[in-house]
Amino acid sequence: MRGRVYGTDHDDPRPGPRPGRVYAELVGGPLDGLLLDITGRAPGDAGTAAVLPTELGAFGAGGRSVYEPRPGDPGRYDWSADAP
Fold first, then answer.
1. What is the pLDDT of residues 29-49, one digit of tens each?
2. Which residues contact 35 (CB under 8 A, 6 or more apart)?
């Protein structure tokens, strides 16, 4: 898996995935293509939405984007909405 992990700094010398971690790709919306670290999520949490702070969404600074696990594909979270 390649790409930049959500939450890493742009100037991080290693912005990509790290060994031993589990990631899901964010699909659509303002964070499209970033990887979300889902390591350690409890089995019951694996199907819950991720509400991620971002300045790139419809609400700008202080806004959040909501990504939900794709049914049948735990390696992808689809964008569903932006929230204030």
1. 999 999 999 998 766 565 689
2. 1, 3, 4, 5, 6, 16, 17, 23, 24, 25, 26
Over the range 55-80, which residues count as b (16 or more CB within 10 Å of their CB) and which as e?
A: eebeeeeebebbbebeeeeeebbbbe
Residue of 10, 4, 5, 6 whose CA lies nearest to 54 = 6
Please report which helix (H) or strand (E) contains residue 53, including its range. Answer: strand 50-53
Are 82 and 58 in contact, with CB atoms under 8 Å apart? yes
Ranges of the chain with pLDDT below 70? 1, 42-47
Q: Are 36 and 77 in contact (CB under 8 A)?
A: yes
